[in-house]
Amino acid sequence: MNASTPATASNATLAGSAEITGHPMVLSLSCKNSRGIVHAVSGALLSVQGDITDSKQFDSPDTGTFFMRVEFTTPESREAVEAALEPVREEFAMDLGLWEASRKTRTLVMCSKDGRTLNDLLFQQRAGTLSVEIPVIVSNHLELQPMAFFYGIPFIHIPVAKDAEGNSNKAEAEAKLLDLVAEYDIELVVLARYMQILSDDLCRKLEGKAINIHHSFLPSFKGARPYHQAHERGVKLIGATAHYVTADLDEGPIIEQQVQRVTHAQSAREFVIRGREVEGSTLSRAVKWHAEHRVLLDGKRTVVFD
Amino acid sequence: MNASTPATASNATLAGSAEITGHPMVLSLSCKNSRGIVHAVSGALLSVQGDITDSKQFDSPDTGTFFMRVEFTTPESREAVEAALEPVREEFAMDLGLWEASRKTRTLVMCSKDGRTLNDLLFQQRAGTLSVEIPVIVSNHLELQPMAFFYGIPFIHIPVAKDAEGNSNKAEAEAKLLDLVAEYDIELVVLARYMQILSDDLCRKLEGKAINIHHSFLPSFKGARPYHQAHERGVKLIGATAHYVTADLDEGPIIEQQVQRVTHAQSAREFVIRGREVEGSTLSRAVKWHAEHRVLLDGKRTVVFD
Amino acid sequence: MNASTPATASNATLAGSAEITGHPMVLSLSCKNSRGIVHAVSGALLSVQGDITDSKQFDSPDTGTFFMRVEFTTPESREAVEAALEPVREEFAMDLGLWEASRKTRTLVMCSKDGRTLNDLLFQQRAGTLSVEIPVIVSNHLELQPMAFFYGIPFIHIPVAKDAEGNSNKAEAEAKLLDLVAEYDIELVVLARYMQILSDDLCRKLEGKAINIHHSFLPSFKGARPYHQAHERGVKLIGATAHYVTADLDEGPIIEQQVQRVTHAQSAREFVIRGREVEGSTLSRAVKWHAEHRVLLDGKRTVVFD
Amino acid sequence: MNASTPATASNATLAGSAEITGHPMVLSLSCKNSRGIVHAVSGALLSVQGDITDSKQFDSPDTGTFFMRVEFTTPESREAVEAALEPVREEFAMDLGLWEASRKTRTLVMCSKDGRTLNDLLFQQRAGTLSVEIPVIVSNHLELQPMAFFYGIPFIHIPVAKDAEGNSNKAEAEAKLLDLVAEYDIELVVLARYMQILSDDLCRKLEGKAINIHHSFLPSFKGARPYHQAHERGVKLIGATAHYVTADLDEGPIIEQQVQRVTHAQSAREFVIRGREVEGSTLSRAVKWHAEHRVLLDGKRTVVFD
What reaction(s) does this enzyme catalyze (chains A, B, C, D) (predicted)? Predict the structure, then answer.
């Protein structure tokens, strides 16, 4: 949800004085930890009649970095708020993001043949329970095109293949993808079981802007057929991991992990089926948090203000 | 753990300038929501060279109440910090609590015959994973006295019974308990499966200072033999609820709930055994949060800043 | 999954001798507990060269009823197996069911306006991860018709309303439903958030053949707006319950229950959103078990051989 | 629990005819899968008036092995039952175990300095919720001796150290352990965070008779300081794995796994604390299942009939 909704509601209950009839915004920032940050930020917000409805902070002992996410309402314009924060941003050399809370994250979804996770994402974005808009879907296969049609979203087929000489068209395919990212003003790329490995170059270009669902419980069982590896190993829990894409395959910062119980009586195929379930909800959760600007990067780890 | 530990560590990593070698403190407050609270609080902390290491807020849409918990380090004394906060407390008419983070909550544990939850609590407090000290244990039975001895904690037997005329000594028993609360400067009373129902009067006197573990999943299956009720109903999950004690039996604000999976193949007795497990960890979790000043009251609900 | 798949596979690995190239079947039975049942059943199966691949039993201490589910492969026809079992069925006065494991349960889904759980069911039945076929969908509203079209399933609109005189057409609506149940040879009716209360008469007619998802954690928070009740109560876990429909509203035998963690920071609306998630997977799980003949009735409880 | 309890109860409810007033026994077996096994076993039990109260089977597709566990009551002696089963055992070349259900597994617990898991085990065995008796505790340190005294269990200190020349006394230490295993008729050795690595030779001698708790989520984060590895990796779930000891360190067959949620805000130390919790309940669960003869080996995997 957009957490500022209830806050607005609450303020309304407080005999809504004029200034509280503002619009909800989200601020997230990180900088080297030092004293006075909170005071400076809250002061800047106060200067634009900002009413803080939710705020979370974390001071990372490992990196000495300070993280903060603030939801607030203000009658002032986005520009005015930005201007008020600028001196603070400068003083503390902050990485700072500022968004209208109601604004949805423009998201490109990449998929292949398995529709389970795509289906979860599309249903939720249409139901309005996921703060994303999905202007375009990309796939290297055609199987899921009807689902895209059903949800009224353009589906672009970018096949990846090798020719007779064994030369892959991967480079062109990735170039096309980047064109789409630019053309559609994409802020987030979600790999909903897109089974191709992205080039290091593409991973770098999408750093912090692409989320992958790993169909197993990282850091174990990396690579191919993890459920079959897990089944062979006789694990009693299987899981899924949603993480940011990095050049280092399957080593990106983890956003969310979930597990499901399994038993000896279930086949590897059943592991896969149960795995799909948990993959879908794990990826949706991660996309939701990212789209609500709740995920910040702390070195190789994530700070999740859920 | 005491969450300010890592923060201190982190500060240490920040090339510890003199003022950061302070002592960790915890501040929690609630007041009617309005603008400028965060700025005022952070300003007061800044004035005592407070370095905020963790801070969480919540603005309750249902009650219009603002809640805040701050961990910070300061080189100043507790008194100095209190003085710096006083004008803020007054301006916003705050309920405000201020503690040394390292200070343990003085806790009196009441038990009866079943030692599982008592055992969990005593082990953890001795292991130092629970920020409580337990100066005295009270029971209406003698079964658990050896455990108290093992942990070197005074065990006081306050039997509750009816005499020949059917007059109960409950009133005197509760009076004795209150004497102990006063004598030992008790800040928290934990009912670790103390099977007696407290009088409304005692509940009121301990309001917000007594935690009970309900051996079932509130609000269902209240009252006697809940696991047997649950077994009869054929539930697939059983749970436990840790809540503050109120005059309204089993209706106190919920602090923590946990569940465990059960099947048709398990007897009511097995439900009880599995229930004990989840009771122990649920109560320990609730006591831990309370002792770290993470639990605030929002009407009939709790705000848990974990 | 159809648990006999791996078994067949395994048998294949055992240098498939002729008799093992049979077809997988499922047998489920219950009767008053007495000695010799297992021997009699296994003897009957042996007489049709049945190869038991999975078998589970339960002897209910509460009702004195014996329950058994057997998966086996046989080269003989369904009729031959039935004939072989007939004397056993008679001797022990068994309730007995016998199915081809590959046969899908003919299921009618009823829905209203919220598509989340319907979407889960339809996707899974098409993906083949749910052993049901859905020949028809019934709704008292039109919102979900496009989804039915997408999955290529007939959608029948049976509005339920009151006329000017306040007379409801509920009786006719339920009559129509029963006609459809007959017309389409329906074995299972799934109420995927169909928000109408069925008449006692209909409930009785569908006894053991209709599954409902209760959008909360039975037995607590029955009736209307349970998530809002839960939110008001400040619970830390919300859940969903899939149960058989009985005349006694929300009191039917429980098949499956699942929970999700919530916090003070989430609004009642967010409770609903998270609730939908858990409802979908809880209902799918219950339908899957029922369709695989894993659920037997033990008085007001269920025996689930998962 | 001892699953035969409810069964007996149930039989009692069945107007206990003479033959049912027997004693509960547990039979577990495995053999190459073929037809007629169930019929043969049930026939043998019938011949000793065995009343089957619970029975579970599994036919492993991966190894072609058939597994079965039966709980039954019989008026006949253990010897009589064994004799009745002998021909069946021979015919199918079965690995077969037969126990009085009420008989507790003689267990030796090894520990080091951390008492959390030991405390769980000792409390539960005394509470009677774990079907084990613990005649002796072994440790390479003295820290936990008081706990052993409290529970009235002999505590034997077998230090493991290197002398001035760097020669370890490990060989003698392990020899002493094996002497104790023989002296006390030990059937199960539980490594309750015994931090020494056992020699391959000892592992082989204890194969299938020793359970270890791995303080992390296998197969990831093997070896030293797994929680710190996990913290560094930024995982969102930590877990514990209880497995049989094999020469291949941390690669033994997995019996049980459990997880706990963690966040960025928790330090590695807090990971350890939460980890201890889940370790304790994971190990107890595994020991409980083993002691109730619910765990069978299927190659490198376990079949758990819980």
Answer: (6R)-10-formyltetrahydrofolate + H2O = (6S)-5,6,7,8-tetrahydrofolate + formate + H(+)
